[in-house]
Amino acid sequence: MQMIPSNSRVLVTGACGSVGSALVKRLLDDGHTVCAFDQSEDGLFRLDQELKGVAGGRLRSFLGNVRDEHRLRRAFEGVSVVFHCAALKHVYISEYNPFEAMQTNIEGAHNVIQAAIEANVEKVVFTSSDKAVNPTSTMGATKLLGERLFIAANHYAGSHRTRFSCVRFGNVLNSNGSVLQIFGRQLENGQPLTITSTGMTRFFISMDQAVDLCMHAAAEMVGGEIFVLSMGSCDILTLAKTVSGDRPLKYIEIGPKPGEKLYEELVTESEAPRTAHDGHMYIVLPDTLDMLPDEMRHQYIKYEKLPRLSAPLRSDMDLLPEAEVASTLRAAGLI
Asked: Do the domain assignments include residue 41?
């Protein structure tokens, strides 16, 4: 696999978030100069303190907001690859603050596109979510529009070299505000676990897998694809039993929060026929393929021999047994 060229200058928006900071660490480990872009001054300070020993002067801290296109343009100067991780991601908070979610997740994505083209960035990867698939929440709808903007940006870029692709995550295990962190605090305090619904199912991905998926997309993208890892799913009750270990499971059912679904999807029914898969990765090919520049469209030949999906991917199908859920959490160092 062609990796990001050595000693590249790479920028990560939302660099102080769970996935963003993990990407920063991986990129530094790989020898790149990393521009950490985030609106949190305290977050950037903490990131710098944590990583300055291994960064060797290759970490650059950029304080700014993706809502500010001018600031993005300055930060993108000399950058070859951008990972766009900045977002408002909490479903129920976005339900109560939809305009704020729109400004960050949609207008912010548009600003990243404009700045990347202006700065002649080579590759830009947008981190999306399974909540963008047939969305029922404000957050999911903003992520869906972010995907559409990034895919369309490949023909919007015209003669510029900049290419855009997306990745879709399931729930990233132990990310900020995730169910594992909530369960962990409740177990520490001897409280019953709060479960939205015993019938709720979710796709799960470890932090290392999330970072691997981003790196794979940056290395392999033609432009316009959505890369999705083949990931396991389980019901929330099984997850609760697993993290409880030998302790008796005590839980209360609290009902869905605004915007929440009982199951998630990785690929829609309409996307399935144009989704190639190689056993461990799904690649959703754009339905605007005919609109892409000729030199890009011809590169899509690499996907022609891969089989296509015949049905959508839903989290309430082929659930992992409890033993496999435990093995996944153990491998990620979470139990």
From this structure: yes
Length of the chain: 335
Residue 155 Cα distances to 143, 283, 298, angstroms = 20, 19, 14
pLDDT, tens digit, 9 for 90 and up, residues 168-215: 999 998 888 888 889 999 999 999 999 989 999 999 999 999 999 999
Catalytic residue among 25, 89, 123, 131: 131
Domain total for the chain?
Answer: 1
> Residue 38 has which token pair?
């985030």
Sheet holding 233-235, edge to edge: 171-172, 201-205, 233-235
Domain residues for 78? 9-171+205-230+267-311
Detail the DSSP E strand segments found in the chain.
9-13, 33-38, 59-63, 81-84, 123-129, 163-169, 171-172, 193-195, 201-205, 226-229, 233-235, 251-253, 265-267, 275-277, 281-284, 313-314
Active site (annotated) includes residue 261: no
Compute the 3-state secondary structure of the chain and give helix, strand, coil in percent, each to the nearest 5: 40, 20, 40
108 residue type, one letter? G
Residue 162 sits in a domain of what CATH number? 3.40.50.720
pLDDT in tens, 137-174: 999 999 999 999 999 999 887 788 999 999 999 999 88
Please, what sign has the CA dihedral across residues 22, 23, 27, 33? Answer: negative
Classify residue 165: in a domain, yes or no: yes
